[in-house]
Amino acid sequence: MADQMIPRAEVTVDLDLLRHNVALLAARAGGAETMAVVKADGYGHGAVPVARAALSAGATWLGSCSLAEALALRAAGITAPVLAWLDIADTDLSAAVSAGVDVSVSSVDQLRGLSGARVHLKIDTGLCRNGCPRARWAELVAAAAGSDNEVYAIWSHLACADEPDNPATDRQAERFAEAYQVALDAGLAPRRHLANSAATLNRPDLHFDLVRVGIAMYGLNPLPQQEDLRPAMTFRSSVALLKRVPAGESVSYGQTWTADRDTTLALVPVGYADGIPRALSGRFEVLLAGKRRPVRGRVCMDQIVVDCGDDDVYLGDEVVLFGSGARGEPTATEWADTIGTIDYEIVTGMYRPRVTRTYLGEVG
Description:
Layout: E1 10-14, H1 15-28, E2 33-37, H2 39-43, H3 47-56, E3 61-64, H4 67-75, E4 82-84, H5 94-99, E5 102-105, H6 108-112, E6 118-122, H7 134-145, E7 150-155, H8 168-185, E8 191-193, H9 197-202, E9 210-213, E10 233-238, E11 241-245, E12 250-251, E13 257-258, E14 263-268, E15 285-288, E16 291-296, E17 304-307, E18 318-322, H10 332-339, H11 343-348, E19 356-360
Parallel strand pairs: 1-19, 2-3, 2-9, 3-4, 4-5, 5-6, 6-7, 7-8
Antiparallel strand pairs: 1-10, 10-18, 11-14, 12-13, 14-17, 15-16, 15-18, 16-17
Helix pairs in contact: 1-3, 7-8
């Protein structure tokens, strides 16, 4: 039995590693300020502790998706500048003004609902999601210039910055420059932000006044080349049951795996309800008792089964499902690559009621 009890499903977030990542990214940003993006509860890492750690490591701004996310930061006592950039059409944004939250605006209709706000006008330069269409940009700029809101910045978002040779980034940069000139011609003097994590690392020409760092801050590398980014999240559980089974016995629903030898199976009480994609069934390993070991059969709602062979394994032993890779354990990126998704989806998927979240390093 392990000496230290481990929750049935636990995510640990190493804030010192996160600080390392933020400091690296802030240094790469050069003279630009750094916005730490903490939307989706800090990509599953916890928005408030992550925000505090990022600010202590050199970030000067915070980025959220919704106004509700931004107000939660304010409620926690965080006073740094915060930008909220996406809400449903009828959201009352007046609370942003009283809370000192900056608001992104992509249309004249959105602008009409604001008074006395500090706004960031968003131009769609080619991602074709949020943002003002280029054909309507001059109209939005003119309306903003004539309003009682402060136009603090213009901004956009890159579609392919994680593909260094993709010409789409240069096309978007050209369109962004055109949009900036329209704003200048209207008498505005806005700041500019365009670079995401990937562009912060590989496009210094696009840093402008502010860079927005998301996935890289959490230690996950958006680029094909090596960077000194250190994953901050570890997902672990423990052995709940051990059993010896003879050759010929099969494991889990559908009996998709059958033992070809006598072996010891370790039951681990985590499953797809705790963030393990069912698509990993029969395709991943865990770190248990110092070795990577295969998970057999299907991932169930609440449990997985690990093949331990003839090795000595004990009740309560730590099982690392993914982590930084420093001990040889799988990583979130490995999971993502195996099932054809992105590591963003893996870590944000760890924000679940049954998963305990704990922190290493100074929380602040």
